Amino acid sequence: MEEAKKKSVPVLPWMRSPVDVSLFEDCPLDHLPCLDPRLKVALQNMGISSLFPVQVAVWQETIGPGLFERDLCINSPTGSGKTLSYALPIVQTLSNRAVRCLRALVVLPTRDLALQVKDVFAAIAPAVGLSVGLAVGQSSIADEISELIKRPKLEAGICYDPEDVLQELQSAVDILVATPGRLMDHINATRGFTLEHLCYLVVDETDRLLREAYQAWLPTVLQLTRSDNENRFSDASTFLPSAFGSLKTIRRCGVERGFKDKPYPRLVKMVLSATLTQDPNKLAQLDLHHPLFLTTGETRYKLPERLESYKLICESKLKPLYLVALLQSLGEEKCIVFTSSVESTHRLCTLLNHFGELRIKIKEYSGLQRQSVRSKTLKAFREGKIQVLVSSDAMTRGMDVEGVNNVVNYDKPAYIKTYIHRAGRTARAGQLGRCFTLLHKDEVCFHLDSFRFLGLLFTTAWI
Ligand SMILES: Nc1ncnc2c1ncn2[C@@H]1O[C@H](COP(=O)(O)OP(=O)(O)OP(=O)(O)O)[C@@H](O)[C@H]1O
């Protein structure tokens, strides 16, 4: 049904002539034009010696004479390195900034994803003197504000007038990684928080973020970053919250130090996903400027090169036993088992923990749990203290855990996109990985038909 609906949606003209990322090759850091030597060292410290194709393609479009002329829409497989593809050019371009203010905003749908992306920025940005902040609701709002906003005169004890205090509020960060809810909290209520100077907006996991309104964060950000000229023609009151604390932050032409009397630089947008939407109505929400589409190969979505896909056909009532046998055969290798709901995640995890012969640590990770519990579980999984994570689809998007060799679809994914994001937790960064899907024999034909367009061949797994 979903696929039939999609086929009737016309593709936008600019999407018909994309830059094909599959024509690019890895590029050693030594050969990358214009790379700041300080960033080269930072990348080497991360264990990176060359850039992946999508990173080279984005670098080419953003660094050099063309310098972020167009908004970029990037559709590239899971694990292909999309995070660094935007983080590196943004950090390199901002490295020349004279005054600290909030210039880049990266929005992600979940807290764990935002933390992951913040870590990538934090590994390179300090090398060129840039500071990175996080707004995800991990700490109290007061703690978060004190991380994001500075009061230099007040802190130095030389400012007593409340009016002066307001004037002196400054951003403590150049780059902010945020989830939509917390971002809106700061926009609405944090004094001194402004998007007035924003140059880059990254919408990662775009299709997921466009699916939900999240307190109208996108129209709000777009409205606040429009110049005076654009603002004159639109009526923000239709969606802006009534107690809109930061309305003063709408950018005016030439207000920033160094930009007096010059046209204000355009806000550049970068939107990314492994399953980027082609729906014109959804893309219209992003208000893209002369967008350039980067995608990998000719098929709409692509799986990682080194992913092996297996089907396991069994009767429904025997599924738990098949799973136990599969996990036993995988030994201590890290594995994520996906179910269709938070309830079945809980049930399955409880059941697996009753199989004494499975001498591996198995934990649940689902949207039903508190964030603190989820974060603790994820940390233990990263550290290898847990071998198997039973997860609902909360885990499917973007999570990058080293050494996950196997993914199991205990419940078959309802959509191709779900398959892509689940399977994409393995075979990342050019590594080998396996995805097993448990199917009842009646499901096999339907399942394989709907996946054929991915060029996906399932091998039958014998356990
Ligand atoms: N140039 C590189 N060299 C080596 N490893 C890299 C390089 N770039 C990224 N990586 C690693 O590749 C992994 C995947 O990167 P990343 O999480 O950015 O993928 P992604 O394309 O955003 O995937 P997803 O669509 O699932 O979110 C990470 O572990 C990252 O550290």
TrEMBL record:
RNA helicase. Residues 63-294 form the Helicase ATP-binding domain. PANTHER family: RNA HELICASE. CDD domains: DEADc_DDX51, SF2_C_DEAD. The Q motif is unique to and characteristic of the DEAD box family of RNA helicases and controls ATP binding and hydrolysis. This is ATP-dependent RNA helicase. The keyword RNA-binding applies. Residues 322-463 form the Helicase C-terminal domain. Its EC number is 3.6.4.13. GO terms for molecular function: ATP binding; hydrolase activity; RNA binding; RNA helicase activity. It catalyses: ATP + H2O = ADP + phosphate + H(+). Belongs to the DEAD box helicase family. DDX51/DBP6 subfamily. It comes from Citrus unshiu. Keywords: ATP-binding, Helicase, Hydrolase, Nucleotide-binding, RNA-binding.
